[in-house]
Amino acid sequence: MRPIFSPEIFGITINITSSILIQWCVILILGIGAFLLTRNLKLKPNKTQSALEKLYQSIRELVLGIMGDEYESFLPYIGTLMIYLLTLNLSGLLGVKPPTADLSVTLSLAIVTFLVVNLNAIKKHGMVAYGRGLLHPYAFMLPINVMERFVLLVSLSLRLYGNMMAAVVLVELVYHALGSIGALAQFGSPIIVHLYFDLFDGALQMIVFSMLTMINIKVTAEH
């Protein structure tokens, strides 16, 4: 993706793309929103607090239902991942290219999940036991088992990137086709396209990424 500007810091050129700027905006908005919505929590909740508690409870039930009670400590990570990913995917509704249609963004998210999955397994069993697990069931399986661990990294990043990029391309093709009919055809008609590719597909890809993250944390730790 072409950088918007490229500042130099300590002699190192850093390319700032639209994906990075959108992510900064999303992080800022979610951070401020979380602070404002949770700073005055009460025992007798109002409508806003009730909605927040319902959201928290829904995510908690999903995480515990898939991973089990012993993985409740992952609730903050999974919850943050779901909200952050959904917001990035839905940014296309604002007429900008979703950051998740950028491979560098999806790869970064996949790397974080990859580290969480494997570091949790090492923390639970120890480095020696983790290494022995890569030799299971036979020592000659080591290259295949190592490759299997890294397949998660490739799979998560490419699946999310491919689906979001395909959605962006298809929406652009629809606008181009409608533009050939007339400028007025681009107003109103693409609503259904945006509802599917930005809203439905964006939510679906968030669910898939989060579900795979939860499943791999559990499976890798218990393998």
From TrEMBL:
Keyword annotations from UniProtKB, A to Z: ATP synthesis, Cell membrane, CF(0), Hydrogen ion transport, Ion transport, Membrane, Transmembrane, Transmembrane helix, Transport
SUPFAM superfamilies: F1F0 ATP synthase subunit A (SSF81336)
Subcellular location: Cell membrane; Membrane
GO biological process: proton motive force-driven plasma membrane ATP synthesis
Domain of life: Bacteria
GO molecular function annotations of the record: proton-transporting ATP synthase activity, rotational mechanism
First-listed, main subcellular location of the protein, grouped into a coarse class: membrane
Matching HAMAP family: ATP_synth_a_bact
NCBIfam families membership: PRK05815.3-2 (NF004484)
Protein name (database record): ATP synthase subunit a
Species this chain originates from: Clostridium puniceum
